[in-house]
Structures are given as structure tokens and as C-alpha cells.
Amino acid sequence: MSAIIAGFVGVVVLISTRDYQSEGGPILTLIAFGGTFIVALLMFAMLALAEKPNTPRNGETLPPDDPPSDPPAHQPAAPE
User: Fold this and answer.
1) CA-derived radius of gyration, the chain
2) Could you state, in order of their start, the residue ranges of all structural domains in the chain?
3) Is 74 exposed, middle or buried (0-12, 13-18, 19+ CB in 10 A)?
4) Cα distance between residue 69 and residue 49, in whole Å
5) pLDDT class for 49, splitting at 50, 70, 90?
6) For a 10 Å CB count at each end of the chain, is N or C smaller?
């Protein structure tokens, strides 16, 4: 998906700089393509990190929460 977005931007820059073909139009196109590709890739990676994880399926358990900080309530002494 990032390559498609970067390709679109690259084509737009190439078309809009066609008067400068001999003076650096292709270089400007490559810079725009590479910059857009990196920005789009980072954007999609950040969106993937922000996604909420799935709920556990049958048979799977959630990771345990923090252990309780309070000791258990008074337990009767075991008979000797």
C-alpha cells in the first residue's frame, strides 16, 4: 500500500516537473517517491501498533494481572 501511494506521488511529481526533465525532474521524482514511501510506511506501522489486540479464543487465557499487594485474609491455623 505504501508503494502504491508513493508511486502515485512520484507520477504526479514527474508530470508536474516535465519542463525540468533535463535539469533534475527525475531526481526530484525519486526524492518525492522515497520520502512518501517512508512516511506512508511509518504511518501504517503506527496504526498497526495502535490497534487493540484480539480477545482470547476458546481455551486461551489472558495474561495474569499484577499479583495482589495485600497478603491474603486471615487463614485459620491448620490442626496439628
Assistant:
1) 29
2) 2-49
3) exposed
4) 31
5) confident
6) C
d(CA 77, CA 73): 12
Phi, psi angle pair for 30, to nearest 5°: -65, -40
Q: What is the pLDDT of residue 78?
A: 67
Per-residue burial over 9-24, b if 16 or more Cβ lie within 10 Å, else e, is bbeebbeebeeeeeee
Share of the chain above pLDDT 90, in %: 34
Question: HSE of 77 in the Cβ direction (CA atoms, 13 Å)?
Answer: 2
Q: Answer yes or no: is pLDDT of 64 > 70.
A: no
Single-letter amino acid code for the residue at 56: P
